[in-house]
Amino acid sequence: MLSVSMGEEVPLEYGRLAAEELVAPEVVWHPSPRAGSWPSVIIIGAGVSGLALAARLREAGISHVIVERNADVGGTWLRNAYPGCGVDIPSHLYSLSFFPRNWSAHFAKREELLDYLRDFADHFGLRDNIRFGTEALGAEYDESGQRWIVRVRDREGNESELAGDVLVTAVGLFNLQAAQISRQNEFTGTVVHSASWPRGLELRNRRVALVGTGASAMQIVPAIVDEVATLTVFQRSPGWVAPAENYFEPMGKDARWLFDHVPYYRQWYRLRLAWTWNDRVYPSLQIDPGWVHLDRSVSAVNDAHRAYFTRYIRTELKGRPDLQQALIPTYPPYGKRMLLDNGWYRALTRPHVDVVTEPVASFSPTGLRTVSGTEYQAEIAVLCTGFAVARFLAPMQIRGRAGQALHARWGRTMPPLIWALLFRVFPICS
């Protein structure tokens, strides 16, 4: 059926996922848990993952508590409030199958996503088990009691301990990464990071410098380009960007009616999106050992994708060979996370927008200075320098058996895990 629905061949091994998505069975416990008979769970973080787990635990009657440093649920969607903030994957995929929503747009913005997570918490009655305004400082495994001891600090600075049989770190990967640009103290203007956007920041008729061209920058630039007097975008390296014709389109009334009235239509719609946005692309990621053009692509399929994306970029930047040269990547498509064009290229062609590919060396009193000594004037500097993904769980210190530190075990990079989420040295901790 999925092959018929997609109009192309879908591998048979996709059938099991399709069946589970369509039937959406309820969780069945064998045996059914009894109050007090199952271990207690401590969850750190009330974002999407933490809330989803808490909902299932509550359904099963398993004791749990969520430690959340912010004043509300939402995780990254609560903290990130920059202009244009939203998902860059379809809304119907960026949601939980057991809590569907009739989204207003194909790609929801931050406010609607935050409302969704708040509604989720209220629907499943999760708030009573969340300690808001409480930061997890660290955790240590108590071998004698076979439990985890989590040190926490509340809004008033009071520290205490929580004990639980199972520890789940649902903190995500989005720890703010400050840009290492020297002489920031000399800058007389305003410096903001995209992940800590101040409420009420006035951009109208201001000269703005924006450092970075990743996902956040790509949403901010089109959202502010009509307000600012000038906009200087500093790019370290370009990324591959795919067209997204329906990025700003609302969900049609016909589709929303079908979601509500036709059995399984919502599940089929979601399944089609899952195939299109995930597994369908997989062949273009695989390296062909016999492919001789590895300087530009990894296979014939990947090369065809490169040609398609390149044509699109050249069309969007028609008449601007300087921008075409600067914005078409040299590495193969999908070598880094793909981005979606939400008006990005056309915003960069505006007469009051400049793209600078020379590295930033330092701040100056009135702007930013590149390595050649060229100075670019700015009143506001926006740092879209990403997140410290490799510093997973920082600044928390987690110690397992014999006091072994988790970060020491991992080293400086991401956890060396592919299939496993649990370490023997760090029992029932994920």
UniProtKB/TrEMBL annotation:
Pfam families: FMO-like (PF00743). GO terms for molecular function: flavin adenine dinucleotide binding; N,N-dimethylaniline monooxygenase activity; NADP binding. Gene3D superfamilies: FAD/NAD(P)-binding domain. Keywords: FAD, Flavoprotein, Oxidoreductase. Belongs to the FAD-binding monooxygenase family. PANTHER family: FAD_NAD(P)-BINDING DOMAIN-CONTAINING PROTEIN-RELATED, L-ORNITHINE N(5)-MONOOXYGENASE-RELATED. This is FAD binding domain protein.
